[in-house]
Write a structure and sequence with these properties.
By secondary structure, the chain is α/β, with parallel strands linked by helices. It is built from 9 helices and 3 strands. The protein has a 3-stranded parallel beta sheet with strand order 1-2-3, with helices on both faces. Helix 4 packs antiparallel against helix 6. About 5% of the residues have low confidence.
């Protein structure tokens, strides 16, 4: 049996829910490859900022014959509400001159050289605000956007079922055979070959 956390969810999803419900603001600074469950982790954060040159984001599960099971299908539709958390927590106005993020998954993509300074400055700004106000704002946004426990449990149960599907097993074996989790070069490019996994 999978270990469960205080929310009654499996421990990984419980961790994501606790992160979202935390009264402090969580900021994911992304520099590197964020796919699958690591993408679901950053989706559970209040804000996400990425290196424009050095970040790769994705949910490749469907290409392997599965679907996201750690909250991706529940959280992605609510990114508008997650963006509301960012606006409420940072008390910033958005200029139309500010470059929009390169992906819907992050609040903003910045040049790599600017990422650390930007995130540090934002974190310090937020830290100067009244914690009660931040916690109250997050709580109200969560009432609208946090997926229910039932919905999250349905997703993980469905994901576990999808692992037993014959085509999913074939695709998983094919991607492992090509180098997933062993070959660094393949790790960087494997989502590009998902459409050819079962070709002989």
């Amino acid at each position: 049996m999978t270990a469960v956390g205080a929310s009654g969810l499996p421990i990984l999803m419980d961790t994501f829910v606790r992160l979202t419900k935390s009264p402090v603001v969580s900021i994911a600074k992304i520099r590197g490859c964020v796919r699958g469950v690591s993408s679901e982790f950053v989706l559970a954060c209040d804000m996400r900022f990425a290196s424009r040159e050095n970040t790769r984001l994705g949910q490749p599960e469907v290409g392997v014959g599965l679907h996201p099971g750690g909250g991706g299908t529940e959280r992605l539709p609510h990114l508008v509400a997650v963006a509301a958390r960012s606006k409420l927590s940072s008390a910033r106005m958005t200029s139309m001159a500010t470059p929009r993020n390169d992906t819907d998954t992050v609040n903003r993509a910045l040049p790599d050289a600017e990422l650390d300074g930007f995130v540090d400055g934002l974190a310090r700004r937020i830290a100067s605000f009244d914690r009660r106000a931040i916690g109250a704002a997050k709580n109200l946004v969560n009432q609208v956007s946090l997926p229910s426990t039932d919905r999250l449990l349905d997703a993980i149960t469905s994901f576990e079922t999808s692992l037993t599907w014959p085509e999913a097993q074939q695709r998983i074996q094919a991607v492992l055979k090509r180098g997933l989790q062993r070959d660094g070069d393949f790790e960087k490019r494997w989502p590009a070959v998902l459409g050819t996994l079962l070709e002989t």
